[in-house]
């Protein structure tokens, strides 16, 4: 029904119901015959009563509500409108000495008006529900895990939207006080331990895990239970991932970050806004995994300008287009520049004079940098030297260098290059008004070329999934989580710090591969094979976030620490690096010699295939 026709229909219907309410009350009051004087009074008053009542119904916006989704709020609006209208009618009758009806008639008529008008609106809701039920044979039956706020909202959305083709038929929750109760008409049929039975008894097609604030350990346990049931498992993501709008739109398949989920990062928005808001911000490596997320999160704090610097045209184009669409009020300036090109870099600094710099540009793949140590030094060290030197020369306020756990006791060229860059930043900070600091963290989930996307590609091809060593373990963190903490660390920087992010517990890469295979609907070692290829050059079995010569000091944020180092920065590291740069290009010997000169304890680790082979043989014999 069109809006205008619907509006007129409801208005005329209400006028009839208002008249009917008064007439029915008169019949009840004077059963069986209404005295002639009250009939006369009724017919003289009813136009006034009808007009006043309709005006209040219009004023309370009862004709602009969607009655198919009527709830307590809509019924209360009807009560308010009839109450005010009845009070106004009585005032008019006694003020202008109009004919009167018995007092009981006014009270009873008010009750009948609420009943009649309320029933007419509830009928719309009942009709919709009956229509849904009639067509629910092709609906998917849903079991919701979690009867908290998220579960309740999810139930309402499913019930209110027949186009979703879903029907919530049961819920489970570990709260014993909720057992055998109903939530919006949906029964709570047990705890998480009862999921398998509930799926069988209720003929469930889909399980939705609606616990967005619980840690990853509980999600992992829940997913393990759900795997035993013949139903599709989906999840409402963590609170820090959720977007505005429909909850159902956020529902997705369970992903690895759900199993590793930790408490959402809390940030001090005042601190962050203080050093980003209305400032010129430069992000190097802006098209990369960390750099692009830095740009997204920095843009939320309304910088005066955001300079996106990257040497990859496609990546730079993508992040520039995304940000312009999402933050149209913020000026973005994409700069296609390589950090190894000092002259081009200086033009950028001279044009914009950035006040805050996040240096995320780097080569990061350990095996590739083992093959090209000269490029590792050239990009990760020399590029950092150029950007940081220009930051000092052009008076930047804060410079944050994105480091890695591989810089701790490095065994690879990549790790050594990042450690040298850390030392370079500390050295520059000693004689600069710019506050230089580094932020060190481990692997991030889903970054380009990292282990999870690699495993997923192998699974999509049917395997095998290649794991370097059965005992290899790594720290993991989501990209948004890591970037939130990087930005927070920037607000704490006084100069010279190496901030270390709390990465939680280390994760077995072998377990990671098996979880991903199961999440993809396959069984490890049966549907998808796992093979062990051996530790590659430069790799460690276990990464470290700080060395034995370092101690961790707490900061005002419980997820950020500061590395307090016993060893001092090598003297004249800045001059040492610049003296090598004079050669213009690196050859392999120059790169390794520079590493040895600055990091005398550096021991490059070569691949050891036998170590893995022997481990697998022992495991098979056992």
Question: Explain this structure to me?
Answer:
- With 622 residues, the protein is an alpha/beta fold.
- The chain is built from 22 helices and 22 strands.
- A nine-stranded mixed beta sheet has the order 10-9-8-11-12-13-18-22-21, sandwiched between helices. The chain has a five-stranded mixed beta sheet with strand order 2-1-5-6-7, with helices on both faces.
- Helix 2 (36-59) packs across helix 3 (72-95), helix 10 packs across helix 18 (479-492) and helix 15 runs parallel beside helix 16.
- The longest helix has 32 residues, at 103-134.
- The termini are far apart.
- The model is unreliable at 611-622 (pLDDT under 50).
Report mean pLDDT, rounded to a whole number: 83
Query: How much helicity do the residues have?
Result: 40-55%
Secondary-structure content class: alpha/beta
In angstroms, what separates the terminal alpha carbons? 74 Å
Number of strands: 22
- In the sheet with the most strands, the strands line up as 10-9-8-11-12-13-18-22-21
Anisotropy-based shape:
elongated
Count the helices. How many? Answer: 22
Low-confidence stretches: 611-622
Largest sheet: 9 strands, mixed
Q: What proportion of the residues form beta strands (DSSP E)?
A: 5-15%
Radius of gyration: 34 Å
Summary keywords:
disordered C terminus, alpha/beta, 22 strands, 15% strand, nine-stranded mixed β-sheet, 622 residues
Architecture blueprint of SSEs:
Layout: H1 3-29, H2 36-59, H3 72-95, H4 103-134, E1 140-145, H5 149-160, E2 166-172, E3 182-183, E4 186-187, H6 195-202, E5 206-209, H7 216-227, E6 232-235, H8 247-250, E7 252-253, H9 256-259, H10 269-276, E8 280-284, H11 289-299, E9 305-310, H12 313-326, E10 332-336, H13 342-352, E11 356-359, H14 366-371, H15 373-393, E12 398-404, H16 413-429, E13 435-441, E14 443-445, H17 451-460, E15 465-467, E16 473-474, E17 476-478, H18 479-492, E18 498-501, E19 507-508, H19 509-519, E20 530-532, E21 550-554, E22 560-565, H20 573-581, H21 588-598, H22 609-621
Parallel strand pairs: 1-2, 1-5, 5-6, 8-9, 8-11, 9-10, 11-12, 12-13, 13-18, 14-17, 15-20
Antiparallel strand pairs: 3-4, 6-7, 16-19, 18-22, 21-22
